[in-house]
Amino acid sequence: MLKLDASLLNDIPPFSRLSSDQIREILDQATPQRWDEGATVFRAGDEAERFFLLLDGTIRVVRTTPEGEQIVPLHIPRGQLFGIAPALSLTAYPASAVAAEECLTLCWPSRLWQGFVARYDGFASETWRTIGERMQHLHDRVEELATRAVEQRIAAVLLQILNQSGRKVKTGIEIPFPITRATIAEMTGTTLHTVSRLLSAWEKQGIVASSRKHITVTDPHRLVLISGSGADQSFLK
Is the CATH number of domain 150-236 3.50.30.10? Predict the structure, then answer.
């Protein structure tokens, strides 16, 4: 992995504005690791000793309420940093990171963070952009929970995942990583029963098709209408 061609990462934030020599310098300090589906990369409250770049796969961010309920605020797609507690001046991870599918990561000791930000301008700017996007996403999620009906929230979450990671297949657009109805419930602040009832109804209406842990949206336009918002439809292009 340490001999990975730096040009392969040219289009991946935070490398996209760096020279090949700069990318090489960063890669030479990285440690690669592969994670099986369901593996915990780190837990909330753990000392933030490392930060990560997701080369392949999907990371599920999980938080646990004081009452012990799990909340899934977002999924992180390939090509993004995660576990970047040093960027937020935190010494512990604020949430857990779980491999939603088999994942490949690079990681660096957190002690290198400030040096990377100071030395590599492109690294810093892409990092702040990513943090800003995630903060906006979390703001939108809080607004959805407060103002929108449950079927709109579920539709909006599926659309957000499609826009971020969706893969076109013959029958529609597929969520490319395993996702259970329980996880959707944790993402939308509702119950497993409600998610199961709505997905079953949408399946009968030809809007979605589901099998064990996998969902394909067969009529994304109708899902956009159900969401009741000006949802990003770039995944349809």
Answer: no
